[in-house]
Amino acid sequence: MRWFEIALVVLTLSSGIIWLLDRLFLARRRAERAGLLEPKEPVLVDYAKAFFPVLAVVLCLRSFVAEPFRIPSSSMMPTLLIGDFILVNKFAYGLRLPINNRKFLDLGEPARGDVVVFHPPQHPEQDWIKRVVGLPGDTVAYRDDTVYLNGQPLRYDPRGRYVGRGRGADASGAKLLTEQLPGRPHPVLERDDLPYFIQGEGEWTVPAGHYFVMGDNRDNSEDSRFWGFLPEADLRGKAFLIWMHWDGSAGGVDFDRIGSRIP
């Protein structure tokens, strides 16, 4: 989505500059040359005046209020499915400039359990989504399919076996559990038919200004267990709503998911 953001900024600035130059200088010159005749407005100016307000509103909404994203992978199943279209709150953790993502107004920090969109350190041009498990200063461990938070194991309530469909059908048969993360219980998937070594076991202490993030699909998520901590500067916003779901291999639109809040 970085290319779209760059294009939107460039088009907004270009149309705004053309509109401003015309208002301050060019329109007056055309009127002087035309005399008593109605001056003809150049096509470029006409387009700039028509599109600048629309582009400016879209840029402001997308940069500072809410931005849409599409879920391309299964790492957050069962919370988020492939084909979910979500909205991300862009001011929950502070206002940031478009393109460079630099914060210029601090409004808050991620809470434990928040589902966040971010630029991963190893792929800064991409947008990823995971759940915040560890806050700065926390010690997080992952052993035997269990998260330990500051030395205490989280409780897992079994909910049977997961039944996937469409592009997520390969997750069928995984254990569906409710992970009792303090303040934010949420569903997770665990596979008992995969090799032990891919689980990403270990123990980590989260440094200041960073977060430990994990996918809810614990055996199919490239997260902090493998690439380290998420810097606060790489945050994009907080995911809060599914506004559309489309999976052509599962019949297209799933109306039951539209309007669902993200736990």
UniProtKB/TrEMBL annotation:
Membrane topology: Multi-pass membrane protein
Residue ranges of domain Peptidase S26 in the record: 45-244
Active site as annotated: 75, 130
PROSITE patterns, per the entry: SPASE_I_1, SPASE_I_2, SPASE_I_3
Keyword set includes GTP-binding: no
GO molecular function, one term: serine-type endopeptidase activity
Reactions catalysed, as given in the entry: Cleavage of hydrophobic, N-terminal signal or leader sequences from secreted and periplasmic proteins
GO term, biological process aspect, one: signal peptide processing
Regions annotated as coiled coil: none
InterPro entries for this protein: LexA/Signal_pep-like_sf (IPR036286), Pept_S26A_signal_pept_1 (IPR000223), Pept_S26A_signal_pept_1_CS (IPR019758), Pept_S26A_signal_pept_1_Lys-AS (IPR019757), Pept_S26A_signal_pept_1_Ser-AS (IPR019756), Peptidase_S26 (IPR019533)
Record keyword Acetylation present: no
EC number from the UniProt entry: 3.4.21.89
Pfam families per the UniProt record, alphabetical: Peptidase_S26
Transmembrane region(s): 6-26, 47-65
Enzyme class: hydrolase
SUPFAM superfamilies, A to Z: LexA/Signal peptidase
Subcellular location: Membrane
GO annotations of cellular component type: membrane
Chief subcellular location: membrane
CDD domains assigned: S26_SPase_I
Family: Belongs to the peptidase S26 family.
Protein name in UniProt: Signal peptidase I
Organism: Cognatiluteimonas weifangensis
